[in-house]
Design goal:
mainly alpha; Arp2/3 complex 21 kDa subunit ARPC3; two-stranded antiparallel ribbon; 7 helices; 2 strands; ECF_trnsprt_substrate-spec; Riboflavin transporter
């Protein structure tokens, strides 16, 4: 019998390291404020969450952002908090839906719902927490135009990009993440 806890920790570690490396490659989108940057750092988290469970995806998001905070933060942690909240909202919703009934249809439904929830959650988080903390100012209705014209569409675009890439890659990566399960089944059949 294999040590399943060790395998899970190893998979989380590898996916977190990959998420961190992908988070380092970020680029701004035209027409959006420069602090909003696209990266694929959430991709290992959503793939891990689909394969291993929603909370595994959140753990990968947490580790990725702690590493980024230590190595490369330029926002005093505000960017990492925002990235963690964004990624966790997306991963938790999408993977929770997919994990109940693993099919292509529920994957698409989960990713779509995750994208919408992520975009809406980031509007709320930015309005009440992130923008006031980053600008060191009180909550203000003056931030509504920024949220509606930049934060909301940016997060919708980010979710769509992540969803498309996830749908393209997950099926081919799933056997690798489930290798221990497949090996145990093959071992039982061989006996």
């Amino acid at each position: 019998m294999r040590n399943s806890k060790l395998q899970l920790v190893t998979k989380i570690g590898i996916l977190s390291a990959l998420a961190f490396l992908l988070y380092l490659v970020e680029f701004p989108l035209p027409l959006f404020p420069p602090f909003l940057k696209i990266d694929l750092g959430d991709l290992p988290a959503i793939i891990g969450a689909f394969a291993l469970g929603p909370w595994v995806g959140v753990m990968i998001e947490l580790i990725k952002n702690i590493l980024h905070l230590v190595v490369r933060s330029s926002t005093g942690g505000i960017g990492e908090v925002g990235n963690f909240l964004t990624g966790s909202a997306y991963v938790l919703v999408a993977a929770s839906m997919y994990f109940r009934n693993k099919s292509r249809k529920t994957a698409i439904l989960g990713l779509t719902t995750g994208t919408i929830v992520m975009a809406a959650a980031m509007c709320v988080f930015n309005f009440f927490i992130l923008i006031p903390v980053f600008t060191n100012s009180p909550v203000s209705m003056d931030n509504i135009p920024l949220i509606l014209t930049a934060i909301l569409p940016f997060n919708l675009i980010k979710g769509i990009v992540l969803s498309i890439v996830t749908l393209m890659l997950y099926k081919s990566l799933s056997p690798i993440l489930h290798a221990d399960v497949y090996n145990e089944v093959a071992d039982k059949r061989a006996r």
